[in-house]
Amino acid sequence: MSSEQQAVARARKAFETGRSKSLEHRIRQLKNLQRLFTERQKEISDAIKKDLNKSEVGTQLYETLGLEGEISLAIKKLKEWAAPRTVEKNLLTLSDTVYIKPEPLGVVLIIGAWNYPWAVTIQPLIGAIAAGNAAVIKPSEVCVHTAKVMEDLLPVYIDKELYPVVTGGVSETQELLRQRFDHIFYTGNSMVGKLIMEAAAKHLTPVTLELGGKSPCYIDKNCDISVACRRVAWGKYTNCGQTCIAPDFILCEPSIQDQVIEEVKKSIKEFYTDNPKTCPDYGRIINQRHFKRIMTMLDDSTIAVGGDNDESDCYIAPTVLRDVKPEAKVMQEEIFGPLLPILSVSGLDEAIKFINKGEKPLALYVFTPNDKVIKRMVDETSSGGLLANDCLVHYSVSSLPFGGVGNSGMGCYHGKFSFDQLSHQRSCLIKKLNMEGVNSMRYPPHTPKKLGWARFFILNNVDLGWIGRMALLAVLAVVAAVVLQNYLL
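and the corresponding structure tokens:
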């Protein structure tokens, strides 16, 4: 038996003991996870510095702070989330108990990504723990140092049998995918997402796929271009452009292109100084393979800002490309790096048409003071999320579901959505062995009179208060007696 098989078997055996189901156990595990981020911040930050050149403050801001908030929310709301949820009744179930009971799925596989290794790996884990599942955690092998820290620290703080960490590369992941899970949660690219889905299909395992794509950014000529470009520059160059919801490209009218370039240039200098290479807040490309992939995208485009690079340091300066054509190399795939192409469109109509020609993106950004422009973007496009007049920050709102649509993913998470995504919503209807007269309409022999009664009970949905329900119960008792009498005649 491989080590991956053993980890899954241990997790399932631990889940079958039932200990992960109690709310007390879930809350205890979440509190322990929270302690990890307060007690081991230095080890976390040091590893991410080695992997992605993120500063300690940047690591807390973009990785662990949000996780601490998610854990606090889950602890505070768990009793409410896990409670049976009453639902609306119809006339036939008025005297019955009808509710939805969230229950754990079982053993969840969480496959993390390397760009925000803690945020996108632990956030689903929070949902898995809160929902009462066991979870096998597979951090990305690309972030070598962070994966090692996860492997070392997580078993110290949370139940190592219920939540084992499995490290390794492609072969280890393939071995995990050969095992049976009750849900697979993957964050990464669409190409691998298809392989995950194919493997899951063999066991009919449901999946959550958090993918990506080319997230468009439309800048209206009538907006405050200085503020818009400042926010776009922050969203684009944070983590050296290696963000799944980074604005991938700008769409704007030709008349404002020069101003957009100039304002983005100003913001780059403000954020990262005249020499971003020496700025502690500017990251690095994860490895040389990705460095080369990004650099080839520059071949047929015109550089307006930046372009400096150093392969030995995996450094690419914040770069702006002007007059980019739709057929350019940089427009053929998600950039996932610090290149910002600008494409000219004649206005909103052409921008919407261009957006709709491509795959549905994970995020869509629009900068405008005009509510009608925003409404048209909302009504006439489709994307995982839409954000007007800012970038990225919708990710931080726990009351919003985060996820893609179509090629950018399926399923969603954050806050209660994580809990629901990793729970089975079990339908429960509890009846008593009385009121049999009402049931007689469904029993053979079937007659037009019985159909008439069935139509009455099924098609008449009424909203009743407590007093109304009590009165209707009395009426139903009489009706049941009448129906039964007719049935017997």
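(Above: one complete record from the training split.) The mean pLDDT is 94.
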